[in-house]
Structure formats: C-alpha cells, structure tokens
Amino acid sequence: MMAEYLLMFRGGDEKRKKLSPNEIQEHMQKWFDWVDSMRDRKIYQGGDPLEGGGKTVKPDMTVTDGPFTESKELIGGYIVIEVGSEEEAVGEAKNCPVLSIDGTVEVRTIADIDRH
After folding, report:
1. According to the model, what pLDDT value does residue 116 have?
2. What is the DSSP letter of 102?
3. How many CA within 13 A on the CB side of residue 101?
4. Average pLDDT score over residue span 2-14
5. Which of 63, 64, 88, 113 is the most exposed place for a label (fewest CB within 10 A)?
6. Pairwise CA distance, residues 88 & 84, whole Å
7. Is 29 a residue whose pLDDT tops 70?
8. Beta-carbon neighbour count of residue 98 at 10 Å?
9. Could you tell me which of 65, 69, 60, 66 has the C-alpha nearest to residue 11?
10. Residue 99 pLDDT exceeds 90
C-alpha cells in the first residue's frame, strides 16, 4: 500500500554560503536531478523551498517576526513523495543534496485521515 511522506530539509546554510557561484550552480543541478528522478518514477507529489523570515502566531494571538531559532533548525523546504514504506522514503531522503552541505532531512508519514 502506498503512503505519502513529507521530507523536510533543515540546515546547510553555513556551508552553502561558502560555495562559489559554480559550486552553487552544481549544487542546484543536483537538486533538479534528484527531483526529476522522483518525477520520472511518479513518486514526487510536490514541494518547494521556503523563504527566510515569516511570522509566528502565538496562543495569545500575538504575531511576531520569525522564526528566530538557530539556522540549523530552520526548515528550508519540503517535498511530498508517495512510496510503499517508510524505508523507501528514507532511501529517497538519503539521496537529498542538502546532506552534502551538512543539512538534514526529516522523514515524516503524512496521516491518512478521513476528511468526510
């Protein structure tokens, strides 16, 4: 049975800042190739990089600029894939280019709930 998994990308910002323009271009090509591979196999469901900044809404309804956590904790983007198991999702995550710049990939199962 197929299930959807969220791959969240964290960190890598410090090492990415030190890359030359050519290295940045090569790194981005690795991302394009990785995503294209998942599209070709029809497991890619969607995803996007995230801009920095944003807002945080707190329980008392105050809104602040942020998030302001250590850069290694910020989520830089996400991809949703559909595969047969968590092990397959982890296998896909192991090919993520963020790992080459000291980032991490969090793999989470998307809950299958009845919305009706």
Report:
1. 62
2. T
3. 23
4. 93
5. 113
6. 7
7. yes
8. 23
9. 69
10. yes
Write out the E strands in the chain.
3-10, 44-49, 55-57, 63-65, 75-83, 104-109
Strands 3-10 and 63-65: unpaired
Token pair listed for 73: 């904790």
In whole angstroms, give the CA distance from residue 47 to residue 77: 7
Q: Given pLDDT bands bounded at 50, 70 and 90, which one contains residue 32?
A: very high
Angle at 75 between CA 72 and CA 79, to 5 degrees: 135
Q: Which residues contact 1 (CB under 8 A, 6 or more apart)?
A: 84
* pLDDT value at residue 55: 87
Question: Which residue carries 């809104």 as its tokens?
Answer: 63
